[in-house]
Amino acid sequence: MSTSYTFDYLPIEVLQLRGYDFFQFIKSTLGEPEAHLLNKVAVKSISALLITEDPLDIFNYDVEDDELENLKSQLCFKLKNQKLLIKPGVISGFRSLKDALKKRVNEALTRTKKKSFNFNPSSISSLPTTIATRPLPNRLSLSEHKEYVLKFINKWCLENKENFELENFDLEENVDFIVNIELDENSDVRASIKCKCNKLILLGKNDNKIQVSNYYKHLQSIACDHMQQIKNAARNLKSIQQQQSSIAGILTAAAQSQTSLIQFSAVSPIATQETFDSNTSTLSNQVTSNGKRRLTSQSKQHGPSKRSRI
């Protein structure tokens, strides 16, 4: 790619280019990677390019996006310290094109001033009626876009908590992430999410609705430190709960064992004492009865003694 550009041949009509024609023009003048970059940062018309200060500034942010990583390898040099250096030819290409476009804008303004404008009321009635009856595109408001994004994030958390081995998984706006949604000069919606790990994730669109899949990919990647912290905190909490449950089980078992010993010591001595007293009473009665029998027997054997007379 040449490091110098001349765009003196650009026609005035180039200022009206947008969409497919705009990207084809960028491919033919700057290159295909430059066209992909403008599409990625939602610059889709000449007017949008003119008011965008520097589309290459996106490379100065730590954005989590596979397409941007691929564009970096095509439009930048990777230095030994892992930093990026945008190729000089890419920078001069964008600058030269914007200078030429600004020149065409000034020429168009000059021509407009030179022309006299004659207002003819009858010309209004001659305008095609289809312009007034043309249906407007069905567009969501910024609040509706945001509600749509938050709804799908909550749904995704609910459906994927088992995959992350989490009992409770709920990402909260302005705590775990920040949603940024805005409209460009063409009223096209642009959205991004800044994760708590300080990564900025650009969100795509489908039928003018924001897609959150890039944010999901970021959460599942090893690059998201915040998601790792959430999982580590859940593991620590589960470990503490298991320890507390184990300690409670040991204390319960010890309490039950102590209660059994107290009941045993409270009941057994009484039963033993009653048995001992009963046995002692029986033995005493037997001894007394036997003693009486001996005395009676001895008395009968010897009988009363008689004195002899002299």
Could you characterize the architecture of this molecule?
Residues 278-310 are annotated as: Disordered. Residues 278-302 have a biased composition (Polar residues). The structure is a single chain. The protein is of the alpha+beta class. Helix 1 (19-29) runs antiparallel to helix 2 and helix 2 packs antiparallel against helix 4 (66-75). A hairpin with a 2-residue loop joins strand 5 and strand 6. It is built from ten helices and six strands; from the N terminus they run ααααββααααββββαα. The chain is elongated. Strands 3-4-5-6 form a four-stranded antiparallel beta sheet. Strands 1-2 form a two-stranded antiparallel sheet. It has helices spanning 19-29, 32-40, 46-51, 66-75, 88-114, 121-125, 130-133, 142-160, 213-220, 225-302; strands spanning 76-78, 84-86, 177-183, 189-195, 200-206, 209-211.
Shape: elongated
Beta strand %: 5-15%
Mean pLDDT: 77
**Strand order within the widest beta sheet:** 3-4-5-6
Rounded radius of gyration (Å): 48 Å
Count of helical regions:
10
- The domain count comes to 2
How many strands, what sense, and barrel or not for the largest sheet?
4 strands, antiparallel
Concise overview:
This protein is an alpha+beta fold and 310 residues long. It has helices spanning 19-29, 32-40, 46-51, 66-75, 88-114, 121-125, 130-133, 142-160, 213-220, 225-302, and strands spanning 76-78, 84-86, 177-183, 189-195, 200-206, 209-211. Helix 1 packs antiparallel against helix 2 and helix 2 packs antiparallel against helix 4.
